[in-house]
Design a protein that fits this description.
The complex is a heterodimer of chains A (300) and B (378). By secondary structure, chain A is an alpha/beta fold. Chain A has ten helices and 14 strands. In chain A, the strands form three sheets. Chain A has a six-stranded mixed beta sheet, sandwiched between helices. In chain A, 41% of the residues are buried. The mean pLDDT of chain A is 89. With 378 residues, chain B is mostly helical. The mean pLDDT of chain B is 83. At the A-B interface, helix 2 and helix 3 of A face helix 1, helix 6 and helix 12 of B.
């Protein structure tokens, strides 16, 4: 559905995107994660035909974004990082304005506005001006605006940033409900959000893609599925040859704490035996995308 | 593009802030008309005008002038006269005139220095003495001449100040509303940057040029409505001739003004920058409009929208050349300004930054024009 090949973009002397390539399949939700200034927003702005690429190719449903931007734009629903809305408009007027810009026929538009206001739980605030809305309500209206023309592709830039946990959770659920129906790209800072929602994740840093894969694949590439945290009595006598034990993927000593990435739980007794009486306490936790992200960004 | 225009007009007319500004502008313009009309009437009147009406009848003068030769020439509106037979002042100013039989005419003015009105009294008496002296001299000359030549004096044409007031000022009054819409364009274009709503608009399936042109057109429509109301007021007040044609010329003049304002607004980062840019731009535009008009009044040559308006207002002879040259100039400049505004808005660095400096942009324009010419020649 979306193909990005050797994409480049510079702003003056700053290289925002340096030869990045990835694709998004039909109905898939691809997450783009990366630190601030990694180039996430630039990448999705180019896909949404908001920015012009300096090099490379981006095709959406087979159409080139530089040659056919109007048709590409009509297929995309875009929620920017800051969905600043026209303050004087009412929620209904705002949806009508954007609906008309997307050339949604009048009779369909009225029904669509009602459906979307119901979907985002704002039917009672439809006649209220935007400047009376909280950040969470604005985000909901922003999502409704992105869906006004029922696009096959949805691009969401940090949709839960700055929201309280309850509102963020409801927006995540909303995105999850859309999965499968729409091809989606989600830019986020929140690793748990990417892990929870995304089919695949692309890790972007300093304008380059470090890796793309399912959260599970990425976790298993960098670390195991499980991390064993062992607090040691005397870290100076630890045997770092633990890597020789089959199933141990990575070992890291941080102060008194030894972090061992494992493939599965079955080898924990062998490790404890190896450490002997030097063990003060033991804890296990699932490896998260956070660990992968930190490891990859550090490595790059 | 029409959707943007329609919604811009709709939201502008819904805005209380705009309605307040709209009414305020009309009141200000009406006030200007009122003052202007007063000055015009004053310039046209042949009657004496007292510039210090508040001082009337406060200047008090005792006058002992049995023949009335000076007393009759003193303006009673400026100085209150009290006839007396006294030959010395009694607690105020006194004008003592010896009975006039033959020349010279002898008179004394005793000025009361305790009152600031003494200056008015002194001036009035001096001018009365001058008038009466002239009359006496005229009488003597008349008595010496046997035959009086019959010389009649009649005023023809208008004096330069009256021309300026009658023609240039009415034309300036007419173009004033064109410069009252800068804030609307700034709010419409720079507001998208300041409120960060522009990104969503650019994501719509319309060319970027339609966003700028749609917004310009909306401002033009609102301006046309206000100009129409304004035109009716001016027409009703001054009974100007050729009002519909003058309205059309004004509308045409509005296009490049809106284009240039849009250009400044697209380049500006924020309201503050746009405000400064538009103020400077308007000073230059007003200079370009008014200077040729003033030159035309004194030298009867030149061209420009204001000159065309002046010619229509004075029902002067207008050649096809006058119309074609002015209209083509307006259309051309309007196209150039709008094209530049669109060209800037198409650039990512202008919309999303980092914004290039004016010199770098100018170099870019030259390269692009060079590229187009090169392509054309190939």
């Amino acid at each position: 559905m979306i193909e990005v090949e050797s994409l480049r973009k510079t702003f003056g002397k700053i290289i925002a995107l340096d030869d990045i390539s990835f694709h998004v399949d039909d109905g898939e939700l691809l997450g783009i994660i990366g630190p601030n200034g990694a180039g996430k927003t630039t990448a999705i702005r180019i896909i949404a035909c908001i920015l012009h690429p300096d090099g490379g190719e981006v095709r959406v449903a087979g159409m080139d974004v530089t040659r056919d931007p109007i048709r590409v734009k009509s297929m995309i629903g875009y929620l920017p990082e800051e969905p600043n809305l026209y303050e004087r408009f009412t929620a209904r007027d705002l949806l009508r304005y954007f609906g008309e810009l997307y050339e949604v026929p009048g009779d369909i538009l009225d029904n669509r506005i009602d459906e979307l206001l119901e979907l985002v739980g704002m039917e009672e605030r439809a006649a209220d001006p935007i400047n009376t809305f909280s950040k969470g309500l604005r985000q909901r209206i922003g999502i409704a605006r992105a869906l006004i023309h029922d696009p096959p592709i949805l691009i969401l830039d940090e949709p839960t940033m700055g929201l309280d946990p309850a509102t963020a959770a409801s927006i995540r659920e909303f995105i999850r409900e859309l999965k499968g129906d729409k091809t989606m790209i989600l830019c986020t800072h929140y690793m748990e959000e990417a892990e929870y929602l995304c089919d695949r994740v692309a890790i972007l840093n300093q304008g380059r893609i470090l890796d793309v894969g399912t959260p599970q694949e990425l976790k298993s590439k960098i670390k195991g599925d499980l991390t064993l945290e062992v607090d040691l009595i005397d870290p100076s006598i630890v045997d770092l040859n633990l890597l020789r034990i089959g199933g141990v993927k990575n070992v890291r000593l941080d102060g008194n704490r030894l972090e061992i990435s494992l493939k599965d739980r079955s080898i924990i007794p062998a490790i404890i035996r190896n450490l002997g009486e030097n063990v003060y306490s033991v804890n296990t936790r699932e490896t998260s995308l956070d660990d992968v992200f930190i490891e990859m960004v550090k490595g790059s | 593009m029409w959707t943007i225009t329609r919604w811009e007009i709709k939201s502008t007319f819904k805005s209380r802030k705009f309605l307040f500004i709209f009414i305020f502008q009309m009141v200000t313009l009406l006030l200007i008309i009122f003052i202007f009309n007063g000055v015009l009437q004053m310039m046209n009147t042949t009657e004496e005008v007292t510039l210090t009406p508040s001082l009337n009848e406060f200047a008090y003068l005792d006058v002992n002038d049995p023949s009335g030769i000076i007393k009759d020439e003193i303006n009673p509106k400026a100085v209150m006269i009290h006839p007396t037979t006294a030959r010395s002042p009694r607690g105020g100013s006194l004008l003592l005139v010896e009975e006039y039989n033959t020349l010279p005419l002898n008179a004394s003015l005793f000025l009361d220095y305790s009152t600031p009105m003494r200056n008015i009294i002194k001036k009035e008496v001096e001018s009365a003495v001058e008038v009466s002296s002239r009359k006496i001299t005229d009488q003597i000359i008349a008595s010496m001449e046997r035959e009086q030549p019959n010389v009649k004096e009649e005023a023809v044409g208008e004096s330069l100040p009256l021309k300026l007031v009658n023609k240039v000022m009415v034309a300036i009054l007419l173009i004033l509303p064109l410069f009252m819409f800068g804030n609307l364009i700034i709010d419409s274009i720079v507001g998208e940057k300041e409120r960060k709503t522009g990104e969503s608009l650019i994501a719509m399936p319309i060319p970027r040029s339609h966003i700028i042109l749609g917004k310009s057109l909306a401002v033009m429509v609102i301006m046309a409505i206000q100009l129409f109301i304004w035109m009716i007021i001016i027409w009703g007040w001054f009974k100007i001739p050729n009002a519909p044609i003058v309205y059309l010329v004004l509308l045409l003049t509005a296009f490049p003004v809106v284009g240039l304002t849009s250009l400044v607004a697209v380049y500006s980062k924020n309201y503050k920058e746009a405000g400064i840019g538009i103020t400077l731009t308007y000073i230059i535009i007003i200079g370009f409009l008014i200077v040729p008009a003033l030159a035309y009044i004194s030298q009867k040559s030149g061209m420009g929208p204001l000159i065309l308006i002046i010619k229509f207002l004075s029902s002067e002879n207008i050649t096809i050349y006058d119309i074609v040259s002015t209209v083509s100039g307006l259309v051309f400049s309007s196209l150039i300004f709008h094209a530049l505004a669109v060209w800037l808005f198409e650039r990512d660095d202008i919309v999303f930054g980092p914004r290039p400096g004016v010199l770098r942009l100018l170099r870019g324009v030259i390269y692009e024009i060079g590229g187009i010419i090169k392509k054309g020649s190939v």
